[in-house]
Write a structure and sequence with these properties.
This protein is α+β, with helices and mostly antiparallel strands and 91 residues long. The protein has one domain: Alpha-Beta Plaits, CATH 3.30.70.3090. 24% of the residues lie in helices and 41% in strands. It has two helices and four strands. It has a four-stranded antiparallel beta sheet with strand order 2-3-1-4. A hairpin with a 5-residue loop joins strand 2 and strand 3.
């Protein structure tokens, strides 16, 4: 399994409550081939979500795309392979 970052720019700023059904749909459609790990949310001045950065464990980017196609209310800018670097490694 690899790690990936899916980036989503929302069409309009959204509250966490409004985004909850989308998150539940992503979680419900996760599979052994692509599993949503968690997200970072970019917020505007009003505290509404404007962009999501979603971490996935997946066999490939296409496995993630297959899940996201089932959730049309979540546009996807791109899906990118990632690796984590800890700052403590550079002390």
């Amino acid at each position: 399994m690899g790690q990936f970052l899916a980036i989503h720019t929302l069409p309009s700023p959204t509250t966490t409550e409004e985004a909850t059904p989308i998150a539940k749909a992503v979680k419900a459609n996760s599979s052994a081939d692509a599993y949503w790990v968690g997200s970072w949310l970019q917020l505007n001045e009003q505290g509404k979500i404007t962009k999501l950065f979603c971490q996935w464990d997946a066999k490939d980017a296409e496995s993630i795309r297959m899940i996201l196609r089932k959730i049309p209310q979540l546009p996807t800018d791109g899906i990118y392979p990632i690796a984590k670097v800890d700052a403590e490694a550079y002390r």
